[in-house]
Every structure is written in C-alpha cells, then in structure tokens.
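Weekly modeling sync, notes
Attendees: AB, CL, MP (scribe)

Item 1: holo prediction request
CL wants a bound-state model with 4'-deoxy-4'-aminopyridoxal-5'-phosphate before deciding which constructs to order. AB pointed out that an apo prediction alone won't tell us much about the pocket. Agreed to run with the ligand included and paste results into these notes for async review.

Input as submitted:
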Amino acid sequence: MTVRTRADLADLPNYVPGRSVPGAVKLASNEVPGGPLPSVIEAIASASTQVNRYPDSGASLLVDTLSRHLDVEADHLAIGCGSVSLCQQLVQATCQDGDEVVFPWRSFEAYPIIVQVVGARQVRVPLTESHRLNLAALAQAITPATRLVFLCNPNNPTGTPLGREEIEDFLDRVPEHVLVVLDEAYREFVTDPGIPDGIEVARRRFEAGRDNVAVLRTFSKAYGLAGLRVGYCYATPSVAQALRKVYLPFSVNAVAQAAAVASLEARDELLVRCAEISRERERVRDGLLDLGYEIPPSQANFVWLPLGEDTAAFTEHCLDHKIIVRGFPGEGVRVTIGDREENDLFLVAATSYLEH
Ligand code: PMP
C-alpha cells in the first residue's frame, strides 16, 4: 500500500519564492534593504531566552500594542503567521468545498494556491490593459456561490493602486454575504493621498453597520520582519473571532511577537525608511521611463516591467549582472526597490539590456 495524497494536489503549483544567489543583489521578494533597528534586535535577543516556553497563543501584548497604534478595538484584530497565513485563514473561515473566491489575476501568487488547498473554487479576473485591477469585471464575477473577494492594493506584482471612490463604489455593489479583503501588504509605501487607508474605509463601514470588509497588513515589508512571519487582520469582531478559530495554535512565535511589538514602538523611524524607498521607487521608475520601458505607476516598494516574451531574457541579463529580479514567464518582471546603490546597479543592467 502506498500513502494516497489528494489527487488534486498533483497539478497544484508550488509557491515559488524569490531566488537567492550568493553575492548577488536580491531585488526579488519585496523585502526592505535595511536590517532590524537596534531596539528590535534587543527585543529579539531578550525573547530568545524564553523559547523553552510556548508563546502567548493570543499574542495579547502585540494585539494591545496594535490596537493602540491603529486606534482600533482589540477585538477587531487577529494575528497570523505572516499575512499569507491570514489569507488562508480568511478562506478557511468563509469557504467550504465548492464555494467561490474571486480575485484579480495576475496578483499575489498565494491566492490561487490557498483557494485550491482549502477546497474552494478560484475565479480569476484579468487585469485591465493598463495593469490595474478591473473592479467592474470583479463585481460581475460575483455569484451566489462567492464567499470572498481579494483586492490587493497596491497590487502585487504590478504596483498599481486603487483609489478611494472606486473602492467605495465596489464595496457598495458587493452583496453583503461576500467578504471583501483589502490586502494592504504594501500600504506603508503609498504616497498618493487619493489611495485610501483601508482601515479607515473599513472602520466607517463598520460604523454604518456593514461588516463585509477585512484589511490585511504585514510586518514583513515596511517593518522589515519578513524572516519572522507576523501579519494582522482588521475586521469585525465576528470575522476576527472566526480567524482565531482557524488559527494554527502557537504559529506566531514568541520572538516574532516581541520583534513586532518593538517595531511598532519604532514605527516613526521605520516609516522614514519607507518614505526613502518610495522616493527611490519614483527615481527608478523615471530612469526606466527615460530608457523607454513601459512602467505602470506603482505605489508599492517595487515596479513592474510588462516585458511579455522578453521576460526570461531580461531576468537572465540581470542575473549576469548579479541582480536577482522576479520574472513571471511571458508576462513581465517585478523589481523590488532596494537601497540607492542597488537601484543604480539595476538601472545600469536595464540600460545595457537595451544595448545587447
Ligand atoms: N499579500 C501580498 C499582496 C503579498 O505580496 C505578500 C508577500 N509577498 C503577502 C500578502 C504575504 O506576506 P507575509 O506573509 O510575509 O506577511
């Protein structure tokens, strides 16, 4: 007898993480270039002396600290092992076999994998010609079987954002039984005041008695803790409670909780770093536009080069220059904004690509 794993996993793609090559500059995973602040390293060291004990499964200090920083009630918050875990918890909390999850495509690569693993049905809605989420088509794709819609704002990998009015209009059109998840993994890099803070949008809707919005944020990007895996969700108390029910016990470890608390306390300093990355994003985009590349406006810590069939050649050319970027075969290349020196190296590679 051989063990029988689920037949439908055979055609499920593996999640492909950004490559790491020793000695190369990695601009492939939307990480920030700076390491943890001294106060965060201290919190990590201090928490590490207690790891013979299980972590606080409710992450109460982290939840209280978040509640204070975001000015929201603690019972509206749920913590997860990275926001990718919360994506899964949201699907688990809303969908049973055959229920539908609608999401834009291309968008965050984990959405289709999670939906299939949970046993729900994927409904992918193509982006517009200008690489933006197609909200009209997303609304049309909703059926009585739809339980959840992911809106990634700004979208990974294109960086394109959604504005306040279009989000409000979409939320007004969505039936009340459908949970709309605003995935704001890159929120802290947004500089355009027309892009709303999803937590504000959700709070106003909750006050108006509408409960079908949830907002996802992460400590992996702006807070620089990708290696520690902490994310959070702001939702109604009943959705937050459902997320806690499907939470894998103890999955946010004690070191990660302590680092997240220390990072929140150092928030102002970290947001200064984000502002610098956002400035670099504009510089890199302008440089690429000057070279003749098409680059949609980005509000995240990466830019998108819709290179189509040239994607593989461009990715290889960057690797020859010891720069790892993220290619999506046949579609385009996503380049994370690094520090100034790293970005300059990338611009040199993008220049020589056109000459080769
Ligand atoms: N959402 C989006 C849109 C992302 O791009 C990512 C990370 N690539 C995540 C969620 C998950 O981030 P994490 O699990 O590190 O919090």
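Recorded for review: The chain is about 40% helix and 15% strand.
Action items: CL to compare against the apo run; MP to circulate these notes.
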